[in-house]
Every structure is written in structure tokens, then in C-alpha cells.
Design a protein that fits this description.
276 residues; 0% strand; 9 helices
């Protein structure tokens, strides 16, 4: 004899809501990250390929091209340009159909993603510590914490893949994707916050304001937290938790969409396609 559930949401409805909320968020993120890749190639890629290194500074940077600093300029170029590689690789890893249909491509893009992620973490630390590429001590600490998380998560994702513990590998790979995307999340978060509040509320020029602190650390901790809630809801038996988590993901998707719009319209497009 089965006991009827007291939940107002059947498990199947909750599972469907959660699944489609995840698809919605990924669709928004994929659009925004594709725009990020396009911006990197159109702005930094073109200038680097043509030898116009000083043109990196056409977009406001903390420390971009510095005359005479060959090592710093080389690390900066590699760091920025490889961001497009890791972003594309991360998106490809997130597509289940690609993983099922072309497993070999999945494996090689995964290896590339993890190796480049480790390089970006280390080069980011180098630029912050050696080159002084940060606005405040708070932002520098956030960079270091993010780098540590990338190194730990990427190492665990690689280890579980080698040991053929594929479910554990998948979980750590998703966590790696979230923390590697911290730079993108930060830009989206800043523009989303400004658009929602119709101004830079709680923000300062050196990113030491209360909103800046939340956005700087939250650029990877908030997505990571939502990912953990999403995974817990997937594994739960009840429907209520799934529906509530789906609602949270939908809200996050809406904020991300606002941030993606603002980032494209006000951060990237004016530097790629300036008004005449």
C-alpha cells in the first residue's frame, strides 16, 4: 500500500521545472559567454594579431600594455586570449548531446579546458601579485581565492576522470566551470546590479564599496552556491524543493539576462563598434 505524498508538487512536476530552469539559465549563459568570446577575438585578438599592442589600452584596463614590460605584456596577452579558449571549452563541456555523440571530442576539449583553466588561475595570480593588476586589496584577495578554487576543483575533476569516477568528475567539472567563469560573472553581475538599481549603488571607483565586495567574491561563490542547491534538489525526493530551486534559478537567469544585455551594450559593443 502506497502512502500519498503531502507535497503540493508531485516529484515529476518538480523535476521538469528544475530541468527547464537549468536549460533556461544555460541558454542565457551560453549567449552571454559567446558574446564574451566574440568580444575577446574582435578587440584583443585583432589588435594582437596586427601588432597593435598599445591598442589594448583603448578599453580602460587596470594594467594592460606597458611599454618595455615584455614579460608582463606577454602574460597579459596569453591570459586574455586564452580566456576565449577556456570559455568555449567550458560551454562545449556543458552540452550533454555533444558528450554522448562525440565522446572523444568531449575528452579532448575537457583536457584543454582544465589545462587552460590552471594556466589562467596561475597567470591571474602572477598579474595580481607581480604586476599589481588589481584595484583594491579586497579585489586582490578575491582573485587569489578564485585562483585557489580553480586549481583545487580542476585537479579533482581531472583526478576523478582518470580514475573513471565519471559522476564525481561531472560534479567537479561543473564546479570548475562556475569558478573559471568568475571573470565573466563579475562583469555580468556589475551591469546587472547597475541596471536593476538604475545606478552604481554601493559601488566605488576602486571596487571597495559594499556592493563591490559582494559582487567581487560573489562572482564565483554565488554561482557555485546555486549550482550546489541545484544538485541537491536534483537528488532530493520531494517536489517542493525542486520547484523552489527552479524558481531561484529562473530569478538568477533573469538577473543574468539583464547583466548580459548591459555588458554587451555598454561594456563590449562600444569598443568593438564605436559610434562614428
Amino acid at each position: 500500500m502506497s502512502i500519498p505524498s503531502s507535497s503540493p508538487f508531485p516529484r515529476t512536476i518538480g523535476a521538469a521545472a528544475l530541468r527547464w530552469a537549468g536549460v533556461l539559465w544555460f541558454s542565457v549563459a551560453a549567449l552571454g559567454q559567446s558574446a564574451f568570446i566574440a568580444f575577446i577575438l574582435a578587440f584583443y585578438g585583432v589588435r594582437t594579431a596586427t601588432g597593435n599592442f598599445a591598442g589594448w589600452n583603448d578599453k580602460p584596463l587596470i594594467t594592460g600594455y606597458v611599454k618595455g614590460d615584455d614579460a608582463g605584456n606577454a602574460v597579459f596577452a596569453a591570459h586574455v586570449l586564452l580566456a576565449s579558449v577556456v570559455t568555449l571549452g567550458g560551454l562545449m563541456q556543458m552540452i550533454p548531446g555533444l558528450r554522448r555523440r562525440w565522446p572523444r571530442l568531449h575528452r579532448w576539449t575537457g583536457r584543454t579546458f582544465l589545462v587552460v583553466a590552471v594556466f589562467l588561475a596561475l597567470s591571474g595570480v602572477w598579474m595580481a601579485v607581480v604586476r599589481g593588476t588589481y584595484l583594491s586589496v579586497i579585489s586582490a584577495v578575491a582573485i587569489l581565492v578564485n585562483a585557489v578554487l580553480i586549481l583545487v576543483f580542476a585537479g579533482l575533476a581531472w583526478r576523478h576522470a582518470v580514475k573513471r569516477r565519471f559522476e564525481a568528475h561531472r560534479r567537479w567539472a561543473l564546479r570548475t566551470f562556475m569558478v573559471v567563469s568568475g571573470v565573466w560573472f563579475l562583469r555580468v553581475g556589475i551591469m546587472g546590479w547597475i541596471l536593476v538599481n538604475r545606478g552604481p549603488v554601493g559601488m566605488t571607483d576602486d571596487m571597495s564599496g559594499p556592493a563591490d565586495v559582494v559582487l567581487t567574491f560573489g562572482s564565483y561563490l554565488i554561482p557555485l552556491t546555486i549550482l550546489e542547491l541545484y544538485g541537491a534538489a536534483q537528488r532530493s525526493a520531494g517536489g517542493v524543493g525542486k520547484v523552489l530551486t527552479a524558481a531561484l534559478v529562473v530569478v538568477a537567469s533573469a538577473f543574468t539576462a539583464a547583466g548580459v544585455f548591459g555588458t554587451i551594450a555598454f561594456m563590449w559593443l562600444p569598443h568593438v563598434w564605436p559610434k562614428s
